[in-house]
Amino acid sequence: IAAESGSLDRFAFDEIVHGVDTTHHVAEGHDAEVLIRWGDPLFADAPELDPLNQSADAQERQFGYNNDYVGFVPLDGNPDHGLLVVNHEYTNEELMFPGLPGPLDEHDFTGLTREMVEIEQAAHGLSVVEVQRRGGKWQYLKDSRYNRRITPRSTEMAISGPAAGDALLKTSADPSGKKVIGTLNNCAGGTTPWGTVLSCEENIHYYFMGDPAGHPNAALLERYGIPAMGYAWGRYDDRFDIAKEPFESNRFGWVVEIDPRDPTSMPIKRTALGRFKHEAAANVVSGDGRLVVYMGDDQRFDYLYKFVTRDPVDTASPANNRDLLDHGTLYVARFNADGGVTWLPLVHGQGPLTAENGFASQAEVLIKARLAGDALGATPMDRPEDVEANPETGRVYVMLTNNTERTAGQVDAANPRADNTFGHIVEVVTEGGDHTASRDRWEILVKCGDPSRAEVGALWNPATSENGWFAAPDNCAIDHRGRLWVATDQGSNWATTGTADGVWALETQGERRGTGKMFFRVPLGAEMCGPCFSPDDGALFVAVQHPAADGTEAYAGRKGRPSTFEDPATRWPDFQDGMPPRPSLVVITRRGGGAIG
Ligand code: FEO
Ligand code: CA
Ligand code: CA
Ligand code: CA
């Protein structure tokens, strides 16, 4: 493991300043251009977005809404040419459709028609899109044979691994328990060494409605927050009504593997990786050749997991990794006060994971992974979001975005702040880069928030400027030089911190460890997702999610008005009358060429 030169700033760019306005900003010497927007056609015969004449069939052929994870899969070894695989996490009806009064309260579906619900379903899922740098400029290729939409409305998926076919996964439409239509609320993810993408199903509870009384698995429903009734889908589509289809919800909350290089391939839900509100699937090949996937369960007081494959990755013959993710061991983390991490295996029959305790089989351990984590005594964390592993140093970065519900009595060493509004980053330190071990160490890298306000209790390297600190770390990436970049999601809290979300560089080693530096800023009401580097760091793809959505009634001149389709706080990125704000991918390049930052 190479030692770093401790005193040098590993990031050469001049940082931008905190602030909030209607457009995006990037550090001097870089360009940040919109690459593809919600509604852009992915096929030669697909229509352009027509916001007043949308249809579900058109949306199925267009880039989806609320881009989150971005993966880059090279096609031919050229770092300027590849496939982007993009998650479309959720939809904001009041910004997509005319005539809605503002953000709808949960359980309030006033004005939502069947056609709107179908458009929403078609706007969820993923897009695969070929991109190439031509004449210095990145563009997406509308007529690429690789382009694909995957949606919860129309894409058939297989269910594989130990839980496939279990009684708890069977429905009237699928008596096999091995086939499901679609994927939901795909948030962060990961890319495997063999070029497939792992997409994480996160807040699946929002999509289900119905009366839970008399449900055969009431405790399971409750632990997963189902039904949350955040969407009207169950009104028009029986499988999202738990009273009509009691086990459909068990078929979501998984990690889905997608092969973007084969547009006819069937996505596969890999049950060996457990069922929870998945966020992140950080891939790292351990010293013995086995793959380790680190995963968060993003909810207040939920857990960090890792999956270790049984077999090594076959780097010579990628096709031999087809079933690699069906065999292995899932672990959940306990963070000990002495600085140790204990990884507790979710294995049926071991410890408390027995039939007497409600786990009849390994399938049930996986379907009820949260309950298994509870039984094993895992450490409740402050919302584990994205995770990345640095293959050079063996260190793993865990974004803990916030937890305002943690009380003083619930504070522990790894979650050290009560009412944790601003979040923190924990490092898991492996011994010699062995990611398969059952014991590691942990350290806190930063405690986020404004270091000039003592009551915040922030922890940064003092070299951090007044623009270098951030709040609510959510997504992250490690570039090909081993440097960490963090993207934030403060929700409406930008009005407190005084800055919109963005991307910050964060030093992890040497004397400057814990120093942040602001690189990119999103427009008002958006959060920052992605980020993803091209193979030579010549491009950084960032996903601007839900522009104009979060907390915009607090913005100067809004006078308390929330954003709507007709009256959004920003019309980024088109700034055209009548065109609503559009979640979009932005590609950042260095002016004159070369690596980012
Ligand atoms: Fe979808 Fe946890 O962010
Ligand atoms: Ca996230
Ligand atoms: Ca990431
Ligand atoms: Ca987020």
TrEMBL record:
Which superkingdom heads the taxonomic lineage of this protein's source?
Answer: Bacteria
The family database entries (Pfam families) matched by this protein are listed as: PhoX
Q: Which residues cross the membrane?
A: none
Q: Which PANTHER family has this protein been placed in?
A: DUF839 DOMAIN-CONTAINING PROTEIN (PTHR35399:SF2), SLR8030 PROTEIN (PTHR35399)
What is this protein's record name?
A: PhoX family phosphatase
What is the species of this protein? Answer: Halomonas piscis
